[in-house]
Amino acid sequence: FFNKMHFKRNVFICRCTFKQENEEKINVNMLYKKNREELNRKEKQHKKEAEAKQPEPTVQSLEMKPKTARSTPNQDFHTHEETEDLMDENCILKTDIAILRQEILTMKNDNLEKENEYLKDIKIVKERNAALEKSIKLNEEITKTAFQDQQELKDLKAENKRLNSELLKKKESNTERNLKLTLQNTQDISVQEKMSSDISEVEDKNEFLTEQLSKTQIKFNTLKYKFPKTRDTLRTKPLDLETLQNDLSQTQQQIKEMKEMYQNAEGKVSNSTGEWNCVEERICQLQRENLCLEQQLDDDHQKEDHKERVINIQRGSIESGKKDLLLQEKNKKLMNDCDHLKESLFRYEREKEERVVSIKEEKYFQTSRKKM
């Protein structure tokens, strides 16, 4: 601010001096013209006076008169006196003319000296004016550049402010996204734990069912093996028939219970597959969010014009890169879990088909027994 005031004061002083010198220049030119006109006027006046007082033709005529008087000695004496008076007057006029010419020469010399001085002064004034004009132009250029620099500084400050606000907004949005991702990760972990617990329960029940099926199959095979013998002994032992019927009803009850347990296991498997579909959808959503974050990071890198912004964005990109690595690791874990779940589901489907085949075989044997 002080430099600006000092600069304005210097410009004002230069303008005042330039104005004063212009006024002096105008005054000098006017004085020069006035003196020139006065000198010309006096010169014309002296010429007119000299022409009016010039007695040469009369003197010559008077000089001719004595010759005629000599030739005519009878002329009057008064003419001689008049000629002498005219000669004296002519000498006086000649001396006056010489004095006037000398005065005119001195005035001309004085005017030439004054004119030279005036020309020198005018030259000096012109040089000063040129220097002042140069200084004024320089000052105007300096003011213009200073104004442009101030405007650029204001624009840079506004741009810096805008970039800082954008960075703050992006930081806030990144923190919100990170919170959402952490919450989603915790939810995914809880869902994975629940799924793993459900799958473990289903596997335990499947193992129990396979054991029960193997036991019933062994029992059915033994009954099948005993059936021809019991058919022979039915005629002799009615009590054994009742026991066999009881055993058969027990096996049928066990088969019914196994069917119910199998249906419950199928329901749990369908629930686990639904949860698995939810997990897959969640994984796709996380991948889409990761792609959006990567796109935003690319956009942020393309807009890096300011140094502070570059540093902040590099830090943010490092942090987001770490977060992306963590998300990629989590996605890998989820994909591995998905593969394990798919393998377990495939195993379960295969066991399910085997159980269906074994149950169909049992039904076939039961129907064949009833027919027998």
Write the CATH fold name of the largest domain.
Glutathione S-transferase Yfyf (Class Pi), Chain A, domain 2
User: N-to-C SSE series?
Assistant: HHHHH
Helix fraction bin: over 70%
Main sheet attributes: strand count, strand direction, barrel closure? none
Summed up, the domain count is 2
On the 0-100 scale, what is the average pLDDT?
Answer: 66
Residues in β-strands, percent: under 5%
CATH top level label of the largest domain: Mainly Alpha
Radius of gyration: 67 Å
Ranges where pLDDT stays below 50 over 5 or more residues in a row are 55-75
Cα end-to-end separation: 118 Å
- Number of E strands: 0
Helix tally equals 5
Question: Based on the structure given, which CATH architecture of the largest domain is correct?
Answer: Up-down Bundle
> Helix/strand-derived class?
mainly alpha
Broad shape: rod-shaped
Oligomeric form: single chain
Can you walk through the features of this model?
The two termini are 118 Å apart. Residues 55-75 have low confidence and may be disordered. The radius of gyration is 67 Å and the shape is rod-shaped. The longest helix is centred in the middle third of the chain and has 156 residues, at 78-233. By secondary structure, the protein is an all-alpha fold. The chain has helices at residues 2-53, 56-71, 78-233, 238-302, 307-371. The protein folds into 2 domains: 2-157; 177-371, Glutathione S-transferase Yfyf (Class Pi), Chain A, domain 2, CATH 1.20.1050. Residues 97-275 form a coiled coil. Pfam families: CCDC144C. Residues 41-54 have a biased composition (Basic and acidic residues).
